[in-house]
Amino acid sequence: MRMPLSHPLRTGTASGSPSRSQGLLLAVLLLSSAPTAQEPDAPGLFLANCAPCHGENGDGHGTTKLDRPARSFRDGGFSYGNTPEALFRTITGGIPGTPMPGFDTSLSEAERRALANYVTTLGPARREVRTEETVLVVEDRPAVAFGLLGPISPRAEAHPRGLLIGTTSGLSFEYRIDDVRLLGIRQGEFVERTDWTGRGGTPLKPLGKVVYLNEGGNPPALFRSVHDGNAVPLIARFERSWIRNGHAGLAYRLFETRDDPPLLRVEEGVDGYGSRIGSGFRRHFILGEVREACRLAIEVPRTGDGEKLGTFFTVDPDGVYPARSWKIVRRPEGPVECVGAVLDGAFPEGVGGHLEFALPAGSTVHLYVVTVLVPEWNEEVRRGLREVPFP
Q1: CA dist list (Å): 226 to 25, 285, 296, 297, 359
Q2: Are 339 and 327 in contact (CB under 8 A)?
Q3: Which domains occur in the chain, in start order?
Q4: Which end of the chain is more exposed for a tag (fewer CB within 10 A), N or C?
């Protein structure tokens, strides 16, 4: 007589009752017959999402016509790293300024990881890395590195006091910190460091490829103090870097002159951003500890040597945040920059990336800036920008 399934592990010894071993055997059989989660179909995912550009066998000859041919994985065309983790980040966030979108929302994490592992099989065998070639690697949390940074571009200068922030999105943010400025952004592996003392000597070797160059690598001060209509650049004195809750950034204080007390404190957080229209990055500024009432101005992005293509606003559908001001700039070389700014806690004046606002003493203001880099500007991109989540 079979024991009812409601008591599969009963251990009675009376006649007709199964032993403990029989009950355990029954439980094992039941578990073994349960359906298991199906593994993602990596080849099928590649054919559906990657083959139109990269070709069915990864040779770069897909059916979609591009201005520049897609990477050939068979030839080792992995500009942003050929490890499964590096490829996972590229698949997740896309490549800023190219037709390569991010698949963060359209594919699950399991599907993206399976796809990354599959793509590694399409290329040539990877050589083993020797211990003396050890690099700093970003895994499941951001990382930072301080040291001498060489010129990020032919027009830029070296910076003895440099900072690299590596994010889990696969982007690295490169700063000078003698007077804090974002120089540019790289995508790919993080950094090789041979000077572990952090006191000069051998420069840091950023391993990622530059995907965004801020004002040619020589950007002006981001924040300016406004007096009687005149805007004076503020000095940004580095305080510290920080990593918490999976995010990273830096903090600094703003001064009108080197002899003055600080006007306010800024905490800046950075991360990658991906969407169906293009990829880019986000910066979140918290302006606080305001010593005395002041008026600030920022311009993101500065038009500089670029061509201003337009400005417009988007509105938060939930009504939580103020409107986002967008400015679109095409650079002579490189992608089109679509930059949107939201100022929460102050009332901005100005449009088209130029924001001017008053800060009362003791106030705290949040500034959210998202940059989407696209190959070209068109109505589809404009519609896509209206879908960018707030803040």
Answers
A1: 79, 19, 6, 7, 11
A2: yes
A3: 42-120 (1.10.760.10), 135-218 (no CATH), 220-391 (no CATH)
A4: N
